[in-house]
């Protein structure tokens, strides 16, 4: 975004992105004027469709999907090799690309200002560049996200991981005073080191106070869901604003650009996860993704199961009955945040995720080779660059 357009109060990430665009005026001007689409339905109409989705999605917890064979090329291709920490150095980005090429990962997932470097590093390889948009809060205004998305594609990104403005969904369902935050994943250094304060303040309850419950369920280790479905029209979230943002990004970045919507599931109730799934399908996103790795405990099995079930149900919907205009098109699920081990990875794939976002890809691949050679055993030795916020370069 041109500096004249920059809002006065910027996050560190936004400051870097604005700086990047200011240094690349050709790229910025290539984007031209960006029009935001008009909405498709009123909030009431969205609410009625979403309520149906919330009632009909059926989670089969016991269902196990066929995960690619551990150690196979297909297994490696499920991994988006990720570095999203703000202070990643060029050398770390180069190492990320080289590791992704060597391991045969699907992509490297980085911030906008690293995209040109990754594109250049990965020329001629099958590894694509994925760029996060609106990272990590998701609350940036729509124009800002659109310019970021346009710039990322212009710079060569093939996949965009866009953070949902989840505050819009949760605005009318504030945490109840008696609710407690989900426990932090003690192995998640990202959460522990940089967002603990945010998480404590912002983490949403998993239990609502009202009313209609769908047939879906989540794994027993998650608190029991009591989905919130607003009954007072004044409490209907601004679904239109969410859809409009997503649909405009889709129209600015048509297929084959792969679009993933990051929910930040730790901040949402199951009903809100289903609302977000519905809107993502309506806007023709390719993936729904659990977490940024910067807020809350990251991918949880029950949430992944719920999202997979939502994708299955929504793929049966058509435009005329409120679903995606591309009838039969099925969104996929990317599990991300806190996936640190081969066991975590396999668990998510067997729950139906087809993509994994992790900064522990090297470790996971080392484990998978060890399992192949020795059967399941202890974790491999060596030093690996773990975690999105790897203020720790963990030694094992
Ligand atoms: O999208 C990917 C996540 O940001 C990665 O999170 P992680 O560092 O916890 O693996």
Overview of this structure, please?
The structure is a single chain. 39% of the residues lie in helices and 9% in strands. With 396 residues, the chain is of the alpha/beta class. The protein has helices spanning 12-23, 25-30, 43-56, 73-76, 90-103, 115-121, 142-154, 166-170, 189-202, 239-252, 270-282, 301-314, 342-350, 361-374, and strands at residues 79-82, 107-110, 128-133, 159-163, 258-262, 287-289, 332-336, 355-358. Residues 174-226, 376-387 and 389-396 have low confidence and may be disordered. It has one domain (10-374): TIM Barrel (Alpha-Beta Barrel). Helix 7 (142-154) packs parallel to helix 10 (239-252). Bound molecules: glyceraldehyde-3-phosphate.
CATH homologous superfamily heading: Aldolase class I
Please state the CA-atom Rg, rounded to the nearest Å. 20 Å
> Which fold name corresponds to the CATH topology?
TIM Barrel
Q: Strands across the major sheet, in which order?
A: 1-2-3-4-5-6-7-8
**How many beta-strand elements?**
8
- Overall pLDDT score: 80
Give a short account of the largest sheet.
Answer: 8 strands, parallel, barrel
Question: What low-confidence regions span 5 or more consecutive residues with pLDDT below 50?
Answer: 174-226, 376-387, 389-396
β content, as a range? 5-15%
The CATH top-level class label:
Alpha Beta
Number of helices: 14
Order of helices and strands: HHHHEHEHEHEHHHEHEHEHEH
Distinct small molecules bound, one entry per kind: glyceraldehyde-3-phosphate
Q: What is the share of helical residues?
A: 25-40%
Kindly give the count of domains: 1
């Amino acid at each position: 975004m041109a500096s004249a357009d920059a809002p006065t109060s910027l996050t560190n990430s936004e400051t870097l992105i604005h700086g990047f665009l200011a240094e690349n005026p050709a790229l910025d001007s290539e984007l031209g004027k960006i029009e935001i689409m008009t909405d498709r339905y009123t909030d009431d109409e969205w609410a009625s469709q979403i309520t149906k989705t919330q009632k009909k999605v059926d989670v089969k917890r016991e269902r196990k999907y066929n995960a690619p064979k551990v150690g196979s090329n297909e297994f490696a291709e499920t991994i988006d090799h990720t570095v999203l920490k703000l202070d990643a150095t060029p050398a770390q980005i180069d190492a990320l690309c080289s590791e992704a090429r060597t391991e045969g990962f699907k992509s490297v997932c980085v911030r906008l200002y690293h995209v040109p470097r990754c594109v250049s590093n990965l020329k001629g390889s099958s590894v694509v560049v994925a760029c996060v948009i609106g990272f990590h809060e998701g609350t940036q205004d729509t124009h800002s996200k659109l310019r970021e998305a346009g710039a990322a594609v212009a710079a060569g990104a093939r996949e965009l991981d866009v953070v949902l403005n989840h505050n819009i969904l949760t605005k009318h369902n504030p945490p109840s005073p008696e609710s407690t935050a989900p426990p932090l994943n003690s192995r998640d250094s990202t959460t522990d080191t940089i967002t603990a304060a945010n998480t404590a303040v912002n983490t949403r309850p998993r239990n609502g106070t009202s009313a209609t419950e769908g047939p879906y369920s989540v794994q027993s280790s998650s608190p029991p869901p009591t989905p919130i479905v607003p009954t007072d029209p004044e409490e209907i979230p601004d679904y239109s604003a969410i859809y409009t943002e997503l649909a405009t990004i889709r129209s600015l970045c048509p297929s084959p650009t792969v679009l993933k919507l990051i929910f930040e599931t730790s901040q949402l109730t199951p009903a809100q996860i289903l609302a977000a799934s519905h809107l993502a399908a309506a806007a023709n996103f390719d993936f729904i993704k659990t977490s940024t790795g910067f807020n809350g405990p990251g991918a949880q099995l029950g949430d992944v199961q719920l999202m997979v079930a939502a994708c299955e149900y929504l793929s049966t919907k058509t435009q005329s009955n409120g679903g995606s205009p591309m009838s039969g098109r099925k969104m996929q699920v990317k599990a991300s945040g806190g996936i640190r081990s081969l066991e975590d990875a396999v668990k998510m794939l067997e729950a139906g995720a087809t993509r994994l976002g992790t900064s522990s890809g090297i470790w996971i691949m080392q484990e998978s080779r060890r399992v192949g050679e020795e059967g399941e055993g202890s974790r491999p030795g060596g030093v690996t660059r773990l975690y999105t916020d790897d203020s720790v370069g963990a030694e094992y």
